[in-house]
Amino acid sequence: MKFKVNGHEVFASTGGRPFDKKKPLIIFVHGSGLTHMTWVLQTRYFAFHGYNALAIDLPGHGLSSGESLKSIEEMADWVNDVIDAVGHKEASLVGHSQGCLVTVECTSRYPDKIKTLSLMGGAGAIPMNPELLSLAENNDPKAVDLMMDWAHGPAGHFGGHPVPGLYHINTGAMLAKSRTIQNTLGVDFRACDNYKNGFEAAKKIKCPTLSILATDDKMCPVKEGKKLASLIDGSQVDIIDNCGHMMLLEEADRVLTVLKKFITTNYPPLSS
Amino acid sequence: MSDKKKELKPNTYKFDTLSLHAGYQPHKNAGSRQVPIYQTTSYLFDDVDHAAALFNLERGGHIYSRISNPTVGVLEERVASLEGGTAALATSSGMSAIFLTVMTLCEAGDHLVVSSQLYGGTVNLFRLTLPKFGIKCTFVKPRDTEGFKKAIQKNTKGIFGELVGNPGNEIMNMPEIAKIAHDAGIPLMVDATYQTPYLCKPFEHGADIVIHSLTKWMAGHGSSMAGILVEGGKFDWMQNDKFPTMTKPYEGYHGLSFAEEFGPTAFTMKARAEGMRDFGPCLSPQNAWNVLQGIETLSVRMKKHCENAEEMVKYLSNHESVAWVSHPSAPNHPDADLANKLLPNGKGSMIAFGIKGGKDAGVAFINNVKLASHLANVGDTRTLVIHPASGTHSQMDEATLKFAGLSHDMIRLSVGIEDIDDIKNDFEIGFRAARKPRLVSNQ
Fold it and tell me: Is A37 in contact with B263 (Cβ distance < 8 A)?
């Protein structure tokens, strides 16, 4: 579906079901340089089971217009604006990687609106490798190739996608190259590198929170994810073996199973 | 000790490693080092919710082997990885891969621009069969790059061609034709069977969909039929209103828009969800496994195929019984420069040559070689020969044969990986017979 936020058109996948204001809202926030499509193996389930599942394209990403937002704080406010724009008073947030920084910040800023928070491959800070940052800001496709390399665990490098026939390293690279790299990945990496408020924001979060971490995650290692989770009261942690940072594709079924249990328990669907 | 900072380099696996490993994780398959053959029609659902999730494309997984199969899935991922594509869909043959591609792209009333230099079966599909589905085609000679542009109509949905034409070895200027297609907002589909991804990755030169008859060099051993379509993932289906079946809600899956939902893998998802469901040209797991065995040695075999082919080009070019030789490695080939650009790892192992003495000499040659096999296939490990005018393209009338660039003296040679001296010695027997066709054929 398309709608406007701050005058710019926003695209959000609804998981293949029409948007229905009566249903509770889950917003999925993608990682650096990526798009709504990274969530395809999670959103469709929720959309078919009593939720509005909105996988958004951040401004300037995927099918959304406008320019990329330059800070995590701006993105957090923008996610809050999305909730308002689609006519909801509350939402459950799900983030991946940079999306974790955004959703942690958003939850800390709008605690009454956010009912649950789910973090995949999250950390309190994501400092960037300077060379990788420079490559992305200089529009070098090598930045995407490096990101795809580091974002997949050793097992993920072999493939074995749950959707038959998809080779996810190339798919991820194509998503990240779908818009001008310096305007998406470059801006996002800089925003991650600049963001310093993650741990303070986490301390303010009171809603039920889930962290899904992966043993082979090089970009947001388990210890960083645990550190963030330890600052959030009652946070649940689930650790996936033999999996890298792109867990939502590498171990899509496992992620969905854990996410489904957490969200349906803490933020029930509209019963049919 | 150098204090020079080490340059960051991606460590994703390279071609030869992907040929052996891509698409498969042993620890998810009982530790089996070899890819298991999942010889089954169907797959247990955990519960009703799981079944519904699979049918609604909420989860990845297998339902019924017409739609997908774990062994076939490994093959699909492996070929997608080797081509640099986002996704692939394997089929029962190369022809079914072409048909599925066209039916995923087009509706009745649509039009395609098609290279005239194609395998005879493909020509018949485009010329005679697709019009029965309301899909019309305009044929253009592969070297007539501007002709592809002129042939595009308002209802044209794509351009199709073989990178190196069958059997005349004319080369399409893929980068320029891709630009023509993209300027018109339509995809370029390339049958790269002759090249395999070892010799050329068409996505790097602008193609959007790559098709293979895996039966040929990819499987390589003349044992199994298989085909595949591979998606590059760059084509934007939403850039215009030409592709409503990709962009508009699809009734067959609860109003799903393939382009919105699956982006760089939308075409493959639609081909599987709609095409395999409705047409059903599925690949058997046993054949998928056989093809996987071939792909494991693809680069090793292709090097030898190309090495032998270049030796045969030299041998034939200097032979008294040969009127002409066509192969992209020949310096006098009209597309030699383009071949060097598009095929840097080798020019393939398909040679066309004209035998002095015309049709009768050709028949005598074919009937007398002993090592080379006379059959309707290419890309076997063994050397194969055929006389197209009386074999693969025999269903064409005289005018169509001429338009397809065929002549009655043409012999198509698929060079195998035998010892090169044995191939040459065998050809000497054939040429001796060709010089005395009547005498030998009466023995």
Answer: yes
Those residues whose C-beta lies under 8 Å from the C-beta of residue B424, and which sit 6 or more positions away, are B311, B312, B315
For helices A185-194 and A142-151, the axis angle rounded to 10 degrees is 60
Q: Flag if A158 and B23 touch (Cβ within 8 Å).
A: yes
Buried b (16+ CB within 10 A) or exposed e, B351-368: bbbbbbbebebbbbbbeb
| B238 Cβ under 8 Å from any chain A Cβ | yes
**Cβ of A174 and B52 within 8 Å?**
no
Over residues B321-366, the pLDDT tens digits come to: 999 999 999 988 999 999 999 999 999 999 999 999 988 899 899 9
Residue B329 CA, chain-centre distance (Å), reads 20
Is pLDDT of A66 > 90?
yes
Chain A residues near residue B268 by CB distance under 8 angstroms: 165-166
Is the per-residue pLDDT at B388 higher than 70?
yes
**ipTM summary value:** 0.94
pTM of structure? 0.94
Whether the pLDDT of residue B427 is over 90: the answer is yes
B-chain CB neighbours of A256 within 8 Å are 59
Closest chain B C-alpha to A152 CA, distance in angstroms: 9
As a CATH number, domain B15-294 is: 3.40.640.10
Side-chain-side CA neighbours of B287 within 13 Å: the count stands at 18
pLDDT in tens, A70-90: 999 999 999 999 999 999 999
CATH fit for domain A2-266, picks 3.50.50.60, 2.30.38.10, 3.40.50.1820, 3.40.640.10 = 3.40.50.1820
* pLDDT tens profile B185-213: 999 999 999 999 999 999 999 999 999 99
Model confidence at B1: pLDDT above 50: no
Does residue B278 sit at the A interface (CB-CB below 8 Å)? Answer: no
CB contact under 8 A, B85 and A40: no
Contact A148 B10 (CB under 8 A): yes
The verdict on a CB contact (< 8 Å) between B70 and A157 is: no
Query: What's the topology of domain B301-441?
Result: Aspartate Aminotransferase, domain 1 (3.90.1150)
Of B10, B59, B269, the CB nearest to A145: B10
The candidate with the shortest Cα–Cα distance to A216, out of A256, A245, A187, A174, is: A245
Query: Considering only CA atoms, which of B283, B228, B274 is closest in space to residue B87?
Result: B228
Do residue A159 and residue B265 have CB atoms under 8 angstroms apart?
A: no
Q: In terms of pLDDT, which residue wins out, B351 or B1?
A: B351
Residues B171 and B338 sit within 8 Å (Cβ to Cβ): yes
Residues of chain B neighbouring A215 (CB-CB closer than 8 A): none
Residue A197 CB-half CA count within 13 A: 17
Model confidence at B371, in pLDDT bands (50, 70, 90)? Answer: very high
| CATH 3.40.640.10 residue window(s) in chain B | 15-294
State the pLDDT at residue B441: 47
Nearest CA in chain A to B62: A164
